Amino acid sequence: MKRYKTLEEAQIALIELLEERGEFRGTIEELSEELSVKPEQVKLVVQVLKSSGNVITEEFDDHIIIKPASSIQVYLPPILTEEQKEEIERKVEEGYKVIACSTMGGVQSRELRSALGKRVIVYFRNGSRLEAKLKGFDRFCLKLRNYMGNILAYKHAISTIVYKP
């Protein structure tokens, strides 16, 4: 009996497929087969990613085109204080990895997925920093948790993220 993926696993699989190929063109059945989900769940997976702003879609009769929404990217140059730059350099020497934030990107998504559940240090554009556990993320924000509770940090306010792999 074939094991079908959960909706969360299917969302990640679709994002990885788009990062690898750039886009998907085909039928719902073909996408269902690629993602290892039931055909009736494909539209739900695509709708969730579309509503979160991660993908854009075009539908023609029985065919669908899915592209990453990275073409709608806003560039904000990172602003780090000299003290933060030095701290980041020390962290890299200690074996931490750096994630430079933008609104969306294949490398960023992959790095954030590998940092899920780990302690991260987030450096903000206003000069402040936050140390917390990364609980989740989408195209626009990060969900973090520390002693203060759950924190929602918007990516446009973030300069750099470091974490220990």
TrEMBL record:
<protein>
    <submittedName>
        <fullName>RNA chaperone Hfq</fullName>
    </submittedName>
</protein>
<dbReference type="GO" id="GO:0006355">
    <property type="term" value="P:regulation of DNA-templated transcription"/>
</dbReference>
<dbReference type="InterPro" id="IPR047575">
    <property type="entry name" value="Sm"/>
</dbReference>
<dbReference type="InterPro" id="IPR005001">
    <property type="entry name" value="Hfq"/>
</dbReference>
<dbReference type="GO" id="GO:0003723">
    <property type="term" value="F:RNA binding"/>
</dbReference>
<feature type="domain" description="Sm">
    <location>
        <begin position="107"/>
        <end position="165"/>
    </location>
</feature>
<dbReference type="Pfam" id="PF17209">
    <property type="entry name" value="Hfq"/>
</dbReference>
<dbReference type="InterPro" id="IPR010920">
    <property type="entry name" value="LSM_dom_sf"/>
</dbReference>
